[in-house]
């Protein structure tokens, strides 16, 4: 049985969800009155349904309130991609994120404020379920400790995601009454807040089985991976102005220890991570689960990337958002040894010479990392490993698929797309939803978490085989695009060694960008490393010469590393919540 893919449990969860969302929009008043109480639901059967509802909550996102895919917050906000769509005014909130123009904290109801609300709604579900389960005797509920551990894992995940976006957040636990929760501020010291997140994952790590029969449930393996990720973020100690002032060696040692506990393997083909038929494979450590044809009207599908389909193809819906930057495309260049150009990748542009037929010219002698054709739609090259779609039309990516090339260029996104004849699709008007999972942690993440910690501890030679393992898989991932008609310009080499920590550090950062390009972690990586201002302003200085819409964009250190606390939350708490610096 899989969670969120079993009709009976989905319907139960949705019924409970409707009860749990019947009150105020603010999370502090989210628990219903006169509908459910701990007393009338404190049975093992109801507890199981509440846990399912909690799992549903962490993926109850949408196009304008993302919880799962971080394309808005982590990709567009970085040097990986542009907003795209029909010009700057189309979903203008995201344009302001891309321009780093967020000096007014009240940004309406879309995106970051909605994400804040959606995550705290999920936390309310989790805490309600915990309060119910805590009151059930173990003799009446043999799964009690495991379910408590799952719920604390989910709570840690929610707070982790919120902290990456907003930094200063209230940590809400099940032992707080509604009145007590209303008195919790967002002024915890940074390291203390990280420890609270880690403690929830630690409880999960200590109380969950290594693996669970039901696909999608948190297990000890996922908890170990999340502890490695949490301690890695925590290791980069920030001051009040978001600047990295120290790197904690003991935290890095914990990263290595927890990474060593994670079992898994890389998919043999990089493409498998982004195809619905391979979901929940060996590389997926933990993912949000979705479903289709489950007895509900549109299924439990994800619309979080519903704006991002290629536009005007006749094959997809709309709306042409999330387009690769020229900088991102250039990053896939390789040298004569198949290694990335760590310092000079952006000295010249590739694949930007559009021909009369709408394709782009490939320069003689150009070699690239094959992950380019798994990440970016390039005119003239096959899209999603296909050159045709039955009788519907051809799948060679076209210049005309770009909605507004005069503003945003013509490079598309590929990872979040499926072939248009996929049975995983639902269309609601022009928007496409898919039942494909959204992966939160891949095994490649864990390998590079460990490599990063080793490099920062001056053990950089130990990182060589870890980075090479990721690169070897990239080198082996050429068949799908070549079979579909891509010209084979691929070359991926391995590192023999690193001559210095400085070179190892550059290689690690570059590998993370190539491996997770346009998946969403890029901006958060730059903030964690304390390199956001330097990297992004250098990117903007060059990219604005190619894309006029970026002419006035500038990243301000000490402010733009995090989003503003939504003004409505500050107002609701009577000023209890503190605003982030600079807003």
Supply database-style keywords:
583 residues; mainly alpha; Serine Threonine Protein Phosphatase 5, Tetratricopeptide repeat
Describe it.
The protein has 583 residues and is mostly helical. It has a domain at 45-299 and 440-543 and 550-573: Serine Threonine Protein Phosphatase 5, Tetratricopeptide repeat (Alpha Horseshoe). It is built from 21 helices and twelve strands. The strands form six sheets. It has a two-stranded antiparallel sheet with strand order 1-5. A hairpin with a 5-residue loop joins strand 2 (236-238) and strand 3. It is globular.
Low-confidence segments, ≥5 residues, pLDDT <50? 1-25, 27-35
The name of the CATH topology of the domain at 45-299 and 440-543 and 550-573 is Serine Threonine Protein Phosphatase 5, Tetratricopeptide repeat
- Taken as a percent bin, the fraction of beta residues is 5-15%
Helix content: 25-40%
From the alpha carbons, calculate the radius of gyration and give it in angstroms: 23 Å
Discrete helix count: 21
Which helices and strands, and how do they pair?
Elements: H1 7-20, H2 38-41, H3 44-57, H4 71-76, E1 81-84, H5 92-99, H6 112-134, H7 144-166, H8 178-181, H9 190-207, H10 220-235, E2 236-238, E3 244-247, H11 249-261, E4 284-288, E5 321-324, H12 326-330, H13 372-375, E6 376-377, E7 388-389, E8 393-394, H14 405-408, E9 412-413, E10 425-428, E11 431-434, E12 438-442, H15 443-456, H16 464-475, H17 479-483, H18 501-515, H19 522-529, H20 532-543, H21 567-572
Antiparallel strand pairs: 1-5, 2-3, 4-12, 6-9, 7-8, 10-11
């Amino acid at each position: 049985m899989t969670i969120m893919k079993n009709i009976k449990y989905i319907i139960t969860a949705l019924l409970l969800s409707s009860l749990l969302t019947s009150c105020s929009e603010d999370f502090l008043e989210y628990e219903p009155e006169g509908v459910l109480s701990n007393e009338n639901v404190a049975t093992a059967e109801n507890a199981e349904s509440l846990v399912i509802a909690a799992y549903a909550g962490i993926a109850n996102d949408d196009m304008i309130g993302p919880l799962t895919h971080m394309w808005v917050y982590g990709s567009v906000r970085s040097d990986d991609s542009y907003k795209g769509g029909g010009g700057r005014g189309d979903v203008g909130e995201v344009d302001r994120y891309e321009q780093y123009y967020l000096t007014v904290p009240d940004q309406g109801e879309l995106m970051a404020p909605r994400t804040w609300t959606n995550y705290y709604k999920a936390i309310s579900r989790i805490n309600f379920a915990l309060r119910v389960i805590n009151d059930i005797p173990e003799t009446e509920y043999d799964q009690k400790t495991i379910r408590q551990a799952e719920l604390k894992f989910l709570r840690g995940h929610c707070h982790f995601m919120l902290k990456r976006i907003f930094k200063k957040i209230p940590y809400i636990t099940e032992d707080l009454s509604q009145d007590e929760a209303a008195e919790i501020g967002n002024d915890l010291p940074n390291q203390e807040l990280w420890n609270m997140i880690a403690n929830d994952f630690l409880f999960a790590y200590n109380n969950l089985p290594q693996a669970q029969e039901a696909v999608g449930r948190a297990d000890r393996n996922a908890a170990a991976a999340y502890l490695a990720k949490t301690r890695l973020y925590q290791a980069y100690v920030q001051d009040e102005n978001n600047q990295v002032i120290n790197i904690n060696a003991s935290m890095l040692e914990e990263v290595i220890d927890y990474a060593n506990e994670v079992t898994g393997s890389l998919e043999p083909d990089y493409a498998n991570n982004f195809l619905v038929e391979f979901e929940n494979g060996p590389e997926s450590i933990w993912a949000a689960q979705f479903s289709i044809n489950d007895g509900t009207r549109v299924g439990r599908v994800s619309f979080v990337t519903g704006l991002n389909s290629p536009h005007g193809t006749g094959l997809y819906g709309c709306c042409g958002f999330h387009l690769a930057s020229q900088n991102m495309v250039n990053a896939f260049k390789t040298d004569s040894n198949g290694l990335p150009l760590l310092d000079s990748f952006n000295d010249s542009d590739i694949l930007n010479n559009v021909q009369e037929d709408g394709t782009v010219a490939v320069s003689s002698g150009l070699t690239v990392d094959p992950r380019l054709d798994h990440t970016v739609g390039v005119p003239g090259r096959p899209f999603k490993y296909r050159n045709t779609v039955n009788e519907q039309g051809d799948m060679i990516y076209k210049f005309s698929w770009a909605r507004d090339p005069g503003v945003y260029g013509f490079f598309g996104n590929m990872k979040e797309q499926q072939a248009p004849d996929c049975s995983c699709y639902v269309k609601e008007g022009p928007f496409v939803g898919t039942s494909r999972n959204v992966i939160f942690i891949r095994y490649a993440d864990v390998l590079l978490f460990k490599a990063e910690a080793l490099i920062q501890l001056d053990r950089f030679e130990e990182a060589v085989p870890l980075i090479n393992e990721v690169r070897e898989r990239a080198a082996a991932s050429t068949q799908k695009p070549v079979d579909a008609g891509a010209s084979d310009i691929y070359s991926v080499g391995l590192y023999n060694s690193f001559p210095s920590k400085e070179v190892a550090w550059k290689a690690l950062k570059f590998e993370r960008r190539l491996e997770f390009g346009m998946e969403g972690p890029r901006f958060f990586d730059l903030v964690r490393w304390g390199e956001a201002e330097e990297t992004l302003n250098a990117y903007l200085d060059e990219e604005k010469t190619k894309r006029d819409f970026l002419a006035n964009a500038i990243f301000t250190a000490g402010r733009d590393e995090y989003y503003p606390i939504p003004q409505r939350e500050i107002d609701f708490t009577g000023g209890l919540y503190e605003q982030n610096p600079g807003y």
